[in-house]
Amino acid sequence: MVADHARTCVFLIGDGVIPGNEGRGYVLRRLMRRTIRMMRLLGAREATMEQLVDATVLTMAPQYPELNDTANRIRQTAVGEETAFLQTLRTGTTIFDTAVSEVRSGGGSQLPGEQAFALHDTYGFPIDLTLEMAAEQGLSVDEDGFRRLMQQQRERAKADSQARKSGVAAVTAYRDILQAGGTTTFTGYDEAQTESTVLGIVQDAETVPAARVGDHVEIVLDRTPFYAEAGGQLGDHGRLRSSDGALVEIYDVQTPVPGLFIHRGEVLDGELVTGSTVISEIDAARRRAISRAHTATHMIHRAFRERLGDTATQMGSENAPGRLRFDFPSPAPVSGAVLAEVEQHVNEVLIDDLVVSAQTMTQDEARAMGAMALFGEKYGDRVRVISVGDWAHELCGGTHAQRSGQLGVVTFLSEGSIGAGVRRVEALVGADAYQFLAREHLLVTRLSELVKAPADQLVERVERTIASLKDAERELSRVRSAQLAASVDGIIGEGQDLGDVRLWSFQAPEGTTGGDLRELAMKAKGRARSGVPSALIGIAVDAGKVAVVTAASPDAIALGISASDLLQAAAPHIGGRGGGKPDFAQGGGTDASGIPAALAAVEQLVRERAGG
Q1: For 430-478, how does the pLDDT look when each residue is reduced to its tens digit (9 = 90+)?
Q2: Cα(first)–Cα(last) distance of the chain, in Å?
Q3: What pLDDT, on a 0 to 100 scale, did the predictor assign at position 10?
Q4: Cα separation, 418 vs 235, whole angstroms
């Protein structure tokens, strides 16, 4: 079983599948986790997927030489998944064993669906693994109960997502409008302004005949140039103007019911009435900025696939005015060199000023021309294909620039992980990218002037400067410690006898660090005579912050004087807090003006408890 599963996993990863929670990724994850657990049952205590992958590639590569080219990526993906799952396995197994004990102690033979669901939802245990482990223990699992809870979770998630997109309006209200007036015709590919008829107005989940100034409503039109949020592209903004003077500011557009565009907005002037005619006008400048970002996303997608292989398929995106984010699978961080290559390639295509075109065709025709489709997306029999020259072809329903040169410039902001095996790149496009680069240029120029080095030597010079500063800080710390050691008698003094207790109470010179203050406290403790109860409080101010240490000998603790008590007496006066043990405690505060009162409070506490 292990060999068969390992071989299947290697070929799946080689074909571009990555472990996930849906579709092919979920099948791969289940196979890998079963393999990992079987190896644990066979006695393996360390990670084993790397060895299994290497053995499989070595065996199968003579017949499938492409495995040699992808072996490193397969290995990285498998090891990453195993590392994550081993932690899940350790935690989940403990919870599972506890649940089994509870079932057996109650005389039962079935693991409740609630516990199976908790294992899945909280600890990442797939239900098939729970079923397998339960069978090994001679127990069954309430699968019906588990699936019922899973369905409830899906419904809650779906309802929450719907609520975020369409507010609180009931879907039934939209369906009533749809049945009465039909679907919305989208005209935004060709025009930024359209004459429309108001088919319905929804407010607080109910259809209303009219909306007045200040009302936040959802408006359904028969025709609209407004793009509704979809495919990672944000919805349009704009305005509706009626012939009788109503004005509505539109700030979001969604499609909670297929075919129906919901325009969310605020009435700024007049009264909008159902059935009235309006001029629907989008914010054209914002649309153009979003369209440039969307075209840039397609180009980045293509460039990453060329550089990293066909496995770098888009897993998510957001196209906003002047900026974008692009998610794709990768078992490891993308190097700075690769990011630079992709960014450069995209900008070279911008200079070529390729035509960006849209064509509607059958899926077979789209596949024949090499158009990319996103896994998990739903497409009809006829699809819309966006092409950037003959270089990039992708199925897409969004809006785009007319030529690649209109993007101006694309610059990457960041690359990072957003989940196991998934990376995210964020970028700026057009004027936003130019402004960012201009600010960066000014910053580099100013830094070059400050450190007196050309831009190409700036990093090296700054690194040397930082290293020098760290060396200087270490030397200053050494000198300060030496000075403190030389003047310790003058700082901590001889102490004073309060009843049966000797108390050292002192404020160290300003700039004394918390570490140096603790060292002074240790030196003072060392001067305490054996058999004589002793206590200590030391305070110092460094960079505006107050540090406090307190200490108490065993004999003082026996009298009811602990370091924690001393700290609690002092802390309120310096606006601070802290904690520790009976023999030593430390804390900090922000109000240096309260230091005299803090020292006096500690002295008073010692007097009261020492009988002095």
Answers
A1: 999 999 999 999 999 999 999 888 988 998 999 999 999 999 988 887 7
A2: 80
A3: 92
A4: 24
- Asked if residue 409 lies in contact with residue 242, where contact means CB atoms within 8 angstroms, the answer is no
pLDDT mean over 263-280: 95
pLDDT for res 372: 80
Average pLDDT over residues 178-199: 94
User: In this structure, are strands 323-329 and 210-211 parallel, antiparallel, or unpaired?
Assistant: unpaired
pLDDT per residue over 49-72, tens digit each?
999 999 999 999 999 988 887 888
- In the numeric block, which tokens belong to residue 233? 């592209």
Distance CA(98)–CA(545), nearest Å, equals 48
Amino acid letter for position 480: R
The length of the chain in residues reads 612
Q: Is the dihedral of CA 442, 443, 449, 455 positive or negative?
A: negative
CA distance 140 to 116: 11
Q: So what's the pLDDT on residue 376?
A: 47
Distance CA 307, CA 9 (A): 24
User: Which of 109-113, 143-147, 380-384, 568-572 is predicted least confidently?
Assistant: 380-384
Which range (118-127, 533-542, 545-554) has the least confidence? 118-127
Please name the residues in contact with 15: beta carbons below 8 A apart, sequence gap of 6 or more: none
Using CA atoms, how far apart are residues 401 and 288, in angstroms rounded to an integer?
7
Mapped to the 3 state alphabet, what secondary structure does 457-523 carry? HHHHHHHHHHHHHHHHHHHHHHHHHHHHHHCHHHHHCCCEEECCEEEEEEECCCCCCHHHHHHHHHH
Count of alpha carbons within 13 angstroms of residue 228, beta-carbon side: 24
Mean pLDDT of the chain: 88
Render 88-134 in DSSP notation, one character per residue. Answer: HHHHHHHHHHHHHHHHHHTT--EE-HHHHHHHHHHH---HHHHHHHH
Give backbone dihedrals phi and psi of 368, rounded to 5 degrees, phi first: -65, -30
Distance CA 481, CA 494 (A): 20
C-alpha 241/C-alpha 92 separation (Å) is 59
Question: What's residue 55's pLDDT?
Answer: 93
pTM: 0.66
Q: Can you read off the two tokens belonging to residue 296?
A: 């840039």
CA separation for the pair 378, 361 (Å, rounded): 15
Cβ 179 vs Cβ 259: under 8 Å = no
Nearest Cα neighbor of 421 from 317, 309, 333 is 333
